[in-house]
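Consider the following input, taken from an annotated entry for PAS domain S-box protein (Mucilaginibacter jinjuensis).
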Amino acid sequence: MLKIVFLEYQTFVKRRLDFDLGTDDKNLRYWQNQLFLNFLIYCTPISLVALTPGIFMAAREGLPVIIAIDLFCFFLLLFFTFSKRMSIRTRKVGVISIFYILSIFLINILGYLGPGVFYLFFISVLASLIFPIRHAYLLTFINAILLAFFALVISQRLFGSALIQEYTPVKWIAFSTNLIFASILIVLLIDKIFQGLQSTILTKTHLEEQYKSIFYKSPLPMWLFDTDTLRFLDVNEAAVRHYGYAKEEFLSMTIRDIRPAKEVPEIEDIVKKNKISGKYYDGNSMHIKKDKSAIYVKIESNLLNFEGYEARIVLATDITKQVEYQLEVFDANKRVEESEMNLKAIFESTLDGFVLIDKAGKIITFNPRAEYSIRFNKRQNAFKAGKSIFDYIEVSRLPYFHQIMHKVHSGETVEYDRKYLTSPKKVSWIRYTVTPVRKDNIIIGACITGRDITERKLYLKSLEDQNKVFREISWVQSHMVRGPLARIMGLIPLLKSSKDENERIQVLEYLDISTQELDNKIKEINDKSNYITEKYPEN
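Applying the prediction step yields:
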């Protein structure tokens, strides 16, 4: 019953006020006027809450002046509320004047702790809500002047004010500055709130315009549908072109009509769950166009309040061609995987060690053989992906290795052999090949290859040793053997032609010496040949 009475009172007040609020709800002034209208509607009945006990207490305490002021201000409020043909600005000024009258008289009569100071503060708040903010600052300044005037009243002991007995001018100014501080602060905060509201209103308007532009001009099909009935609420031109239905046809359909029959229960369940959760939806599905052809689409949707409906806005991207390509991509990926597996098998089974590093020297990958075929120092730790290759290099060889990497990064391939003493009597040789790794003709790293060439080195060493011995044998044959043989060949004709027995004996002695010398040289050659045979036996 009370609610009905209040509604009738509200209708009566609005009819009596009869001032134009305007229609531009995107303007802050519209909302300030709307706020003032509601202030007038609620102020009169609520003022009775303060008026009734105030008059009662004033009568009890023998304060007829307060009764007169309260009644005077109440009737003034009724006048500015119910009078016809009065502009909204006049009503605002009148209401502010009423609170100034109350404030001045109550402060003078009741002092600082009475309701008068509260009304003075309320003036700043109300002004910042219903007037442009500059008026609120102006009224706050007037409040400061009014409080300064009361300081003068206290100082000069004017009017017999109640303030004279309670305050000194200094104490009054101290209290007053706090009131002014609070007034300025609240006006500033309300100003910031209104600025934020205005910005929000403008942003909302801008977003609405953007929405319309994006929705209707989007090259991709978009639509809105009611999450309760699944009925289309709006569609853009791209949807009309792509699906073949006219806009009027769309608006008479539901989203069930563009789905295969077997998928309808699933989509109903998805819409129901997403309505409860409010989550963004992203998924793929099949749609049916007007010509009954099936297409695959990627659906992206979100909840949206549209003209009172709890709707979902949907963006549909045709991915039919991508789906058709998926099988081809799958087959291609399968071939790539097989190639990678083959490459991995080769990479892991090769006799050479490989270490792949990036341009900064960090190890990307390596094969199992690298541990045995690539040794940069005597006490080398196992290779680990992510570590720097320079951590494995002996400190003394770092400058040399940096030179190698500089050449490789310049596009050169560097090869070098290195000898290692694996045990006191065993030597091994590693041949390193450092090759630049390119991508799109840009060097992005290097591949270090290590091959154990110990057997090859030993074989070459054996060939060198044999060749040396053969050269010695050849030299002995061509020089040392030739000398005694030449002497023998020269002595034999002398022996044949000599008639003197003493001469023959002497020739035979020379011949014996040369023969022994020749025999010694032949034995030396035989010993060298046996040495080679024993050191390098046939396998």
